[in-house]
């Protein structure tokens, strides 16, 4: 116990490690705010610098970048409608409308506080329940990941302001975009039209920047004559009353974030979208309608994607399975340093587990002051005249997209998606479900085919498999309820019942 405590406090007591965690968090916040420069890319570059470092120093830096980067994507999502990371897509749905109302400073302040709350919740679960949660995550079969992806696609009901039919069309378009490239199981070209440049698929970051950032820039060209919105930055740090008001929603969303983060191959982007959906379904009196600047639409995804950080470390440390792309990079770093993540890591080097927990605690502690700095300067972006701001957004979009793979093909795709996104916005089609489809399409495809193969290509055995385990049965029931909730019959039954309860006389 004393050894575990000493390693837990190592980052706090060693000035060098303390500095690395702080610098990693600071770099992560601003790297995450840059479209195209993903947290995964930053962590990958860091590995090349840490080959000769002590393993503790390397982990301290990467943990800081990870925590800061997941949060940092919310800044440009709120200010420019350009999610810095895929996990910030859901944040942009209400964050950018808040910026257009002049409340960007308050929005970023609330995002910072709930991100820290979600991060600490994920760390607590990691420290206390890592073996338990990892055992549950290990029970997930391909059919369960298929159900999870289908449930995610059904979130189009929450992300669709233009109607469910338009939302389904947008999600289907995203799935098609996500399936372009080599087949994940057979390596056969799919939807490439014999073009070698499409064999590697279409970058979801290029799609994200095009549909959100560039499309918004094109759309704003119609409003050049409108005066820019002056941002209220007089009070950035939210009051204790505000934090307590959103605390129940933040904790509920953090639970979702930890669970989704602990599932191998998912991560904060899916967790944020599912948390946004549950907030929209369960919040009876939001501050504003969702999609029009509801603070609940910020609290839920930001709590979930930061809680997913702690969740993603659970399968990595206990099973040797990455929870998301960044933990996959960290696994590579551990191998470089002669360590083997998995069950034996917890037995042979338990002190490493407690060192990572301590570094995560410290990174989240640094996130609060770092996240609350620079907001007044960044909020002034919204006060810049559109004639100046729009060319800067386009330039930032081009640079960010090119930086993904140093490929002009990605830039061309980004412009194509930007033009398409402009017309979709003009005709009231939502773009959020498109990114959701791009992210979930490949997961749904590979999970479906693995589930069919595990059922020996037998249709009846495949359908029966959805009821063979408690996890599959629960997810199946949840999926069916979601499908039913999108039908007019649901509204007729439950809408009538709610109306009756509302008009019933009180006793």
Structure characterization notes:
The chain is an all-alpha fold and 507 residues long. It has one domain (2-487). Helices cover 72% and strands 1% of the residues. The protein has helices spanning 2-8, 10-13, 15-32, 39-49, 55-80, 89-100, 104-138, 142-153, 156-159, 164-178, 204-220, 240-261, 268-282, 296-319, 325-336, 343-348, 350-371, 375-379, 386-405, 408-426, 432-454, 459-464, 470-485, 488-503, and strands at residues 181-182, 189-190. A two-stranded antiparallel sheet has the order 1-2. The model is unreliable at 498-504 (pLDDT under 50).
Structural class of the helices, strands and pairings? mainly alpha
Alpha carbon gap, first and last residue: 58 Å
Q: Helical segment tally?
A: 24
Task: Give the low-pLDDT segments.
Answer: 498-504
β content, as a range?
under 5%
Percent helix: over 70%
Task: Report the C-alpha radius of gyration, rounded.
Answer: 22 Å
How many domains? 1
Question: What do the pLDDT scores average to?
Answer: 78
Outline the biggest β-sheet.
Answer: 2 strands, antiparallel
Number of strands: 2
Structural shape: globular
Order of helices and strands: HHHHHHHHHHEEHHHHHHHHHHHHHH
Task: Walk across the major sheet and give the strand order.
Answer: 1-2
List the helices and strands and how they pair.
Blueprint: H1 2-8, H2 10-13, H3 15-32, H4 39-49, H5 55-80, H6 89-100, H7 104-138, H8 142-153, H9 156-159, H10 164-178, E1 181-182, E2 189-190, H11 204-220, H12 240-261, H13 268-282, H14 296-319, H15 325-336, H16 343-348, H17 350-371, H18 375-379, H19 386-405, H20 408-426, H21 432-454, H22 459-464, H23 470-485, H24 488-503
């Amino acid at each position: 116990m004393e050894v575990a405590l000493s390693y837990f406090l190592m980052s706090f007591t060693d000035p060098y490690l303390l500095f690395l965690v702080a610098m990693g968090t600071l770099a992560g916040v601003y790297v995450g705010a840059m479209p195209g420069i993903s947290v995964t890319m930053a962590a990958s570059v860091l590995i090349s610098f840490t080959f000769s470092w002590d393993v503790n120093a390397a982990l301290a830096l990467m943990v800081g970048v990870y925590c800061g980067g997941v949060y940092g994507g919310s800044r440009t999502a709120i200010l420019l409608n350009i999610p810095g990371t895929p996990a910030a897509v859901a944040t942009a749905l209400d964050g950018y409308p808040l910026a257009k109302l002049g409340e960007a400073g308050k929005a970023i302040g609330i995002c910072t506080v709930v991100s820290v709350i979600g991060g600490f919740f994920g760390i607590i679960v990691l420290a206390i329940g890592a073996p338990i949660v990892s055992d549950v995550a290990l029970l997930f079969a391909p059919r369960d990941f298929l159900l999870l992806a289908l449930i995610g696609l059904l979130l189009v009901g929450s992300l669709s302001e233009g109607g469910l039919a338009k939302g389904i069309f947008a999600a289907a378009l995203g799935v098609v975009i996500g399936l372009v490239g080599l087949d994940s199981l057979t390596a056969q070209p799919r939807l490439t039209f014999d073009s070698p440049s499409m064999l590697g698929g279409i970058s979801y970051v290029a799609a994200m920047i095009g549909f959100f950032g560039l499309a918004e820039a094109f759309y704003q060209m119609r409003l050049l004559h409108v005066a820019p919105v002056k941002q209220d930055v007089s009070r950035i740090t939210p009051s204790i009353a505000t934090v307590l008001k959103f605390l129940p929603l933040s904790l509920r969303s953090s639970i979702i974030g930890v669970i989704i983060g602990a599932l191998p191959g998912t991560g904060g982007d899916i967790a944020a979208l599912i948390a946004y959906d549950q907030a929209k379904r369960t919040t009876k009196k939001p501050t504003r309608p969702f999609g029009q600047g509801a603070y609940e639409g910020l609290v839920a995804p930001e709590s979930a994607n930061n809680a997913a950080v702690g969740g993603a470390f659970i399968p990595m440390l206990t099973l040797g399975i990455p929870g998301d792309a960044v933990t996959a990079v960290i696994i590579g770093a551990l191998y470089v340093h002669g360590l083997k993540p998995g069950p034996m890591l917890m037995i042979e080097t338990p002190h490493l587990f407690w060192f990572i927990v301590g570094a995560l605690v410290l990174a989240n502690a640094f996130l609060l002051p770092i996240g609350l700095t620079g907001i007044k300067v960044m909020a002034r972006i919204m006060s810049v005249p559109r004639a100046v701001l729009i060319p800067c957004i386009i330039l930032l979009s081009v640079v960010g997209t090119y930086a993904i793979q140093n490929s002009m093909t990605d830039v061309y795709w980004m412009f194509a998606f930007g033009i398409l996104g402009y017309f979709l916005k003009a005709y009231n089609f939502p773009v959020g479900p498109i990114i959701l489809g791009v992210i979930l399409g490949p997961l749904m495809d590979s999970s479906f085919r693995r589930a069919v193969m595990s059922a020996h290509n037998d249709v009846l055995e495949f359908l029966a498999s959805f009821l063979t385990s408690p996890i599959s049965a629960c997810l199946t029931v949840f999926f069916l309820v979601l499908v039913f909730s999108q039908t007019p019959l649901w509204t007729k039954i439950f809408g009538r019942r709610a109306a009756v309860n509302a008009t019933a006389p009180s006793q």
